[in-house]
Amino acid sequence: MGRYAGDRFGSYEKEFDGVHDVFELQRNLNNAFAYDLVPSPSVITAALRAARRVNDYPTAVRVFEAIKAKVENKGQYEEYLEDLKPLRDELGINLSEDLYPELASR
Asked: Mean pLDDT across the stretch 61-72?
């Protein structure tokens, strides 16, 4: 897989595991995406599970928008999508490009 931030984001998994409200979720996401590197799939997994746990579906969808904006190219984004597809299916998370196909080309 592409360039993951690896150990730099290890503590974020624990932070997302402890999320109990939307504020904590969004604060942790802002911190995780503030670096130049894209968080690893394990961190994204913890974030998505936290989003669904606090019933914040829009943020779960936006996590993928953040990944798309942060990666260097479309291939890296596709790798994330492939890695996270089973989790997306399990949690029922659609991509914004699936929800709004007219905006997918932007």
From this structure: 95
